[in-house]
Specification:
alpha+beta
């Protein structure tokens, strides 16, 4: 599936304007004006600042190579530093998996359950990734385990930073004006954000509607191995997947179909693409603003 043309935004003279943004009070004032207009478009500063907890639920469709995987995603946030992501996904006639990934301040953990026989093996980062069904092909070294934990922490912090920015225009990271982007159907102002301990990203805000249009960032393409009952991957296949060098790409996350929820305008379709192709579509079915989420629900049981 090809990327929708509205996502293919080309930066106009980004190097010149980015240099101005780093040293110019005028550029800082421009960023303030852009964000103020965007907050007003989403419902106003008062409505946005009232949101301290948030839950988001919807159906996803992921494209990984020649495979298409359907599932459901629920995100729960206690701002500013707690996020729980619950993924349930599977393939027709194949195994299903539920995966819970949690950021609890500076701590991260995850848990997963396979159902229906067989299983999934997913790697989000570089060498030293998790083993998968049947256990790892070899014992991981302490250095590999630490590298995995560090990569997972960066990934979770970066994901939470993107969601807080896209849904509520909330960030405590340094920001600067990065230029203007243009497509056939309009223009967008581009703001650069560098979260502490996370991945740098660019936020595209539509000049006509003042709504967040897209976030772009560089990341690692996830890979997945699916095995059915009686067809487990061999230790050699698992080791090969673990040691293959990661493939990086510029991800573009597009936000659309805005609808008002309790006075806040929120996107109900999130489309992610990389290398010119759509990799995931997330149709959001329900937002809850300020649900009663307990901080202890972000602590791993038994810890």
């Amino acid at each position: 599936m090809q990327m929708p043309r509205m996502i293919a935004l080309a930066l106009v003279a980004p190097l010149t304007i980015a240099h101005l943004a780093a040293s110019s009070p005028q550029a800082d004032a421009k960023v303030g004006e852009i964000l103020a207009a965007a907050r007003e478009a989403l419902g106003g500063e008062a409505a946005l600042s009232k949101v301290q907890t948030l839950s988001v639920t919807g159906a996803t469709r992921r494209i990984m190579g020649e495979r298409e995987i359907a599932g459901d995603v629920t995100l729960e946030f206690v701002l500013p530093d707690k996020m729980k992501r619950t993924d349930s996904f599977g393939m027709p006639g194949g195994p299903t998996m539920e995966r819970v990934s949690v950021l609890n301040g500076g701590e991260v953990w995850d848990d997963s359950t396979n159902r229906g026989g067989g299983g999934f093996m997913m790697r989000m980062g570089g060498p030293g990734g998790p083993g998968g069904p049947g256990g790892p092909a070899r014992e991981l070294t302490d250095e590999e385990r630490q590298r995995m934990r560090d990569a997972q922490t960066r990934r979770m912090k970066s994901e939470m930073a993107r969601h807080a920015l896209a849904f509520l225009l909330r960030t405590d990271a340094p920001i600067s004006y990065a230029g203007e982007a243009e497509a056939e159907d309009g223009k967008a102002d581009v703001i650069a954000i560098t979260p502490l301990g996370g991945t740098p990203m660019k936020l595209f805000i539509d000049q006509a509607t003042h709504l967040p249009l897209m976030i772009s960032y560089e990341g690692v393409l996830p890979r997945m191995m699916v095995n059915r009952p009686g067809q487990r991957p061999t230790p050699e296949e698992i080791e090969k997947m673990r040691n293959e060098p990661p493939q990086t790409a510029v991800f573009e996350v597009r936000y659309s179909e805005y609808k008002k929820v309790d006075g806040v305008l929120l996107p109900h379709l999130v489309t992610t693409g990389a290398n010119g192709n759509v990799t995931e579509e997330w149709t959001i079915e329900k937002f809850k603003l300020n649900p009663a989420l307990k901080p202890e629900s972000f602590v791993k049981k038994g810890s």
